[in-house]
Design goal:
Elements (H helix, E strand, L loop, with lengths): L8 H14 L4 H12 L10 H27 L2 E4 L1 E6 L25 H14 L3 E6 L7 H14 L4 E5 L5 H10 L3 E3 L7 H7 L6 H14 L2 E8 L6 H14 L3 E6 L16 H14 L9 H6 L3 H7 L4 E2 L6 H4 L19 H10 L3 E3 L9
Parallel strand pairs: 1-8, 1-9, 2-3, 3-4, 4-5, 5-6, 6-7
Helix pairs in contact: 1-2, 1-3, 2-9, 3-10, 4-5, 5-6, 6-8
The site of S-adenosyl-L-homocysteine has 19 residues, from loops.
């Protein structure tokens, strides 16, 4: 592990400037930056709470200004929207953090039929969406045959739209079939890049190595790939976060999804504290500087954590929002965490409010499919 160093405000700023110019830091440098911002450091000892807060606020501001500069250089003031369809909350996995884990017997399970999925996308198309994200648990009913059938129908009905999938881990052959059927993008968060921490969050049968293999396979097939992690998940340290950033620096995904961990009352992590807004937006800004072209959502979890979460995310460099297109009747059943926002501007039906919300902070919601800019 990197050695612990004392750091001054000016050095923290230098690290941010280095990241801005070179789009990469060493693991030790990421850790130093995170420790300076979120750790308890010896150099804080002789400072008052107020002085510390002021410094941290100044650091945030400088970081966010640079993140916005790069966000604007590549994307202008455009914010892309993706319509999210939560296809099934059946899941064979047992992730300790997740509300729809296999062993949560209090969930009312549902799965949408193909017709229902198509209906959601039809409504989404009319509302202006040109990317559909189909997400769900790892549900045995949705075999690759059945998913391919849905993908093919969507592809022929909406040749101008991007189709994004988020259904967890599959063999490479299945991913290839999804791709050949017409899917373009795949979201699979790595959750944490540290083996030991991975085993704090997941039962033994789930392995980080497998996750990484899936992500590599998806990339090799030609998907635009999204990885990512939860911020403030139980057992997470700043060193783990530095490792997450290093992993993403290697993988070079096209999208990165991060959001605060939020506890769910019917999981083993019911009593664990939520992740923080400050840490999430700080990391969003770092991710923007690591890759100015990255597609970076201000997630539902961030919007759930705080009223202004989504705006704060955008102002830290995020450029994607994923409103909910699922049928109203099932929205309250796809609960990964407590109090999940799914109405108001979180809902696809709240697009007008969303536009206004974004305009108020100087951004414009656009409806093109917003692929990863290759150059
Ligand atoms: N089954 C799919 C979709 C998972 S849900 C898959 O495995 O990829 C999408 C993301 O929600 C997960 O990757 C996880 O990072 C996040 N998530 C799950 N439970 C959460 C919680 N309690 N708080 C915050 N985010 C959570």
């Amino acid at each position: 592990m990197p050695t612990y160093k004392r750091m001054k405000f000016e050095q923290a700023i230098q690290l941010i400037e280095k990241l801005e110019q070179q789009h990469r830091l060493t693991e030790a440098e990421y850790l130093q930056l995170l420790q300076y911002r979120f750790g308890t450091l010896p150099e804080w000892d002789d400072k008052s709470e107020e002085e510390i807060e002021t410094k941290r606020h100044q650091l945030d501001e400088q970081l966010f200004v640079l993140a916005r500069k790069h966000q604007q250089q590549v994307f202008g003031n455009r914010i892309y929207v993706r319509g999210l369809v939560e296809v099934t909350n059946y899941c064979k996995n047992n992730c300790y953090y997740c509300g729809i884990r296999r062993e949560n017997h209090r969930v009312e399970r549902y799965r949408l039929t193909k017709e229902e999925i198509l209906e959601c996308c039809k409504e989404g198309y009319q509302l202006g969406f040109r990317t559909f994200v189909l997400q769900g648990g790892e549900d045995g009913y949705y075999t690759d045959d059945r998913l391919c059938d849905v993908i093919r129908d969507l592809r022929s009905k909406y040749p101008d739209c991007a189709i994004t999938l988020s259904f967890g881990e599959w063999e490479k052959e299945s991913y290839q079939r999804f791709f050949d059927a017409g899917a373009n993008r795949y979201l699979l968060r790595h959750e944490t890049a540290d083996e030991e921490h991975y085993s704090v969050l997941h039962p033994r049968e789930q392995e980080l190595a497998k996750r990484k293999e899936c992500l590599q396979n998806l990339k090799d097939i030609g998907f635009q790939v999204g990885a990512g992690f939860m911020v403030g998940s139980p057992g997470q340290t700043l060193a783990h976060l530095a490792k997450d950033l290093m992993y993403l620096q290697e993988l070079q995904p096209h999208m990165v999804g991060i959001g605060p961990f939020l506890s769910h009352g019917d999981t083993p992590f019911a009593k664990e504290p939520n992740g923080s807004l400050e840490q999430t937006v700080f990391l969003l800004a770092i991710l923007r500087l690591m890759n100015p072209r990255i597609l970076l959502p201000a997630t539902t979890a961030l919007a759930t954590l705080s009223q202004s979460g989504r705006e704060r995310g955008i102002l830290a460099g995020a450029n994607v929002i994923m409103p909910n297109l699922s049928p109203m009747a099932v929205r309250k059943k796809y609960l990964l965490y407590d109090n999940k926002a799914c109405t108001g501007t979180e809902a696809a039906q709240g697009m007008e409010d969303l536009r206004r919300q974004m305009q108020a902070i100087g951004y414009e919601v656009v409806t093109d499919r917003g692929d990863y800019p290759e150059s």
